[in-house]
C-alpha cells in the first residue's frame, strides 16, 4: 500500500490506571506510520474516576449507565479536539477480563461515538480474538512491530509497557509482517503499577509512589519477593494475559512491612515479573525499550537495568512517545481493521489463527471524505 492511501487515524485509550484518556493521531496505512501527529490527554475528575472504579469487575447487562456516560463524555470531548481525523480507534475502558471464562469487557459505545464525532469508529477490539480462543490481550504488539521495523535494526528488540499491568513484546524485526511465524512473542508480564498505586492509596492516601520516592527509602524483603515469584503465572508459557487485580495477593505479601519496605518490595516484584517474562523469549532482546507510566519510576527502571543483560531505556530514546504509544497503537489497529488486516495472532494472544478484531461503526449518512 502506498503513502497516498494512508489515513489520519486517532486512537483513544483509557488504561487500567483510570487516570484519564490518552488520544493521539497518526498517519498510517496500518503497516507503516508515516507521521506521528497531535496528542491530547483528558484526565478524569476524582468523581469520574470513582464512578469507573466502582464499575470494575462488571459485565454487559449490569447497570453501567453512569460509567458509560463518563466514558462517552470524556472521549467525545478529547476526540473533538483533533482536526482532520478520518478514523477513530476507540479502546474503551476494560472493566473485566476473563478470556478463559466470561470473556473480556471494554466499556464504551463506539456507534454512539461515531454519531457524535461524524467519523467512523473502530471499537471492541478484543472480543473476536477471545471468541477464537485467544487472550484478547495484549494488542499493541502489531503496532510495536511497525515501530521496531522503522528503527531499521535487525537485532531482537523488546518493548515493555509498564502500565497498571505490564506487557512485553519481543520482536524479530527481520521478519516482513507481524503475523509471520517468529516475528513476535507477546504477553502480560505481571502486575506493574496498579498494586503499587493501591498500596500508596491504602497507606498514604496518595495515587502513586511518585518517582519511586518511597521505594527508594526502603529495602527489598527477599522472603516476600520469593513467595510472589512462586505464583504459577510466571511458569505459564506465553501468550498469557491478566486482569488489573489478578495480583492483589501482592498487598497481602507486604502487609507486615513498613511503608517504605513495602513499596520497595512491590516495585521489585513488578521488575522481577518482567525478568521472569524475558526468560520466555526465543532469544534475549538486545535492547529493552520501556513505555507507559512506570518508565518515570527511577527505582523500577534501575531494578530492571540491574537484573537484565541488555540496555533498558525509555522509548523516547528512539523518538517515540511513551505516554501515547498505546493510543497510537489503537489508531494503527483501527486502520488495520478497516483494511481487513489481522490485529493479533497465535504468538501475541494465543488465538488459533491471525485475526482482525474490532467492530466498525459509521455515522448515519457517512460517505468517506478524503482530506488529501
Ligand atoms: N513519575 C512517576 N513516578 C512513579 N510512577 C509513575 C510516575 N508517572 C506515572 N507513574 C505510574 O504510571 C501509572 C500510569 O501508567 P500508564 O498511564 O501507562 O497506565 P495505563 O495506561 O492506565 O495502564 P495499562 O497500560 O495497564 O492500561 C500511574 O498510575 C503511576 O503508577
Ligand atoms: C484486557 C486489557 O485491557 N488489557 C490491557 C492491560 O493494560 C496493559 C496490559 O493489561 C495489556 O494486556 C492491555 O493493554 C494494552 C494496551 C494492549 O492490549 O496491548
TrEMBL record:
Chemical reaction(s) catalysed: 1,6-anhydro-N-acetyl-beta-muramate + ATP + H2O = N-acetyl-D-muramate 6-phosphate + ADP + H(+)
List of residues binding ATP: 15-22
Main enzyme class: transferase
Region feature Disordered, mapped onto this chain: 348-372
Pathway: Amino-sugar metabolism; 1,6-anhydro-N-acetylmuramate degradation; Cell wall biogenesis; peptidoglycan recycling
Gene3D superfamilies, per database record: 3.30.420.40
InterPro entries: Anhydro_N_Ac-Mur_kinase, ATPase_NBD
Entry superkingdom: Bacteria
Keywords: ATP-binding, Carbohydrate metabolism, Kinase, Nucleotide-binding, Transferase
GO BP: any one term: 1,6-anhydro-N-acetyl-beta-muramic acid catabolic process
Any one GO molecular function term: kinase activity
Entry's family note: Belongs to the anhydro-N-acetylmuramic acid kinase family.
Function of the protein: Catalyzes the specific phosphorylation of 1,6-anhydro-N-acetylmuramic acid (anhMurNAc) with the simultaneous cleavage of the 1,6-anhydro ring, generating MurNAc-6-P. Is required for the utilization of anhMurNAc either imported from the medium or derived from its own cell wall murein, and thus plays a role in cell wall recycling.
Record-linked PANTHER family: ANHYDRO-N-ACETYLMURAMIC ACID KINASE
Protein name: Anhydro-N-acetylmuramic acid kinase
Gene: anmK
Amino acid at each position: 500500500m502506498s503513502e497516498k492511501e494512508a489515513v489520519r487515524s486517532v486512537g483513544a485509550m483509557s488504561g487500567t490506571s483510570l487516570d484519564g484518556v490518552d488520544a493521539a493521531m497518526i498517519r498510517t496505512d496500518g503497516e507503516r506510520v508515516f507521521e506521528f501527529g497531535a496528542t491530547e490527554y483528558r484526565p478524569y475528575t476524582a468523581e469520574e474516576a470513582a464512578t469507573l472504579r466502582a464499575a470494575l469487575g462488571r459485565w454487559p447487562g449490569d447497570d453501567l449507565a453512569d460509567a458509560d456516560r463518563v466514558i462517552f463524555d470524556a472521549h467525545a470531548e478529547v476526540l473533538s479536539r483533533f482536526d482532520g481525523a478520518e478514523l477513530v480507534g476507540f479502546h474503551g475502558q476494560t472493566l473485566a477480563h476473563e478470556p478463559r471464562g466470561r470473556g473480556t469487557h471494554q466499556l464504551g459505545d463506539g456507534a454512539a461515538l461515531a454519531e457524535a464525532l461524524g467519523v467512523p469508529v473502530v471499537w471492541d477490539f478484543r472480543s473476536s480474538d477471545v471468541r477464537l480462543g485467544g487472550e484478547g490481550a495484549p494488542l499493541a504488539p502489531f503496532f510495536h512491530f511497525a515501530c521496531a521495523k522503522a528503527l531499521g535494526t535487525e537485532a531482537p528488540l523488546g518493548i515493555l509497557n509498564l502500565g497498571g499491568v505490564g506487557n512485553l513484546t519481543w520482536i524479530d524485526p527481520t521478519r516482513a509482517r507481524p503475523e509471520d511465524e517468529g516475528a513476535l512473542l507477546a504477553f502480560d508480564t505481571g502486575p506493574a503499577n496498579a498494586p503499587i498505586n493501591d498500596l500508596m492509596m491504602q497507606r498514604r492516601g496518595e495515587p502513586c509512589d511518585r518517582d519511586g520516592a518511597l521505594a527508594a527509602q526502603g529495602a527489598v524483603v527477599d522472603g516476600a519477593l520469593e513467595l510472589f515469584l512462586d505464583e504459577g503465572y510466571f511458569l505459564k508459557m506465553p501468550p498469557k494475559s491478566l486482569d488489573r487485580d489478578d495480583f492483589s495477593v501482592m498487598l497481602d505479601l507486604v502487609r507486615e512491612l513498613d511503608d517504605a519496605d513495602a513499596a520497595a518490595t512491590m516495585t521489585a516484584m513488578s521488575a522481577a515479573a518482567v525478568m521472569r517474562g524475558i526468560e520466555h523469549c526465543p532469544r534475549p532482546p538486545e535492547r529493552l525499550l520501556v513505555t507507559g507510566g512506570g518508565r518515570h519510576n527511577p527505582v523500577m527502571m534501575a531494578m530492571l537495568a540491574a537484573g537484565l543483560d541488555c540496555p533498558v531505556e525509555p522509548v523516547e530514546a528512539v523518538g517515540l512517545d511513551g505516554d501515547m504509544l498505546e493510543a497510537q497503537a489503537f489508531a494503527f489497529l483501527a486502520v488495520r481493521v478497516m483494511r481487513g488486516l489481522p490485529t493479533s495472532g497465535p504468538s501475541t494472544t494465543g488465538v488459533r489463527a491471525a485475526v482482525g478484531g474490532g467492530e466498525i461503526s459509521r455515522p448515519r449518512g457517512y460517505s468517506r471524505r478524503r482530506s488529501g
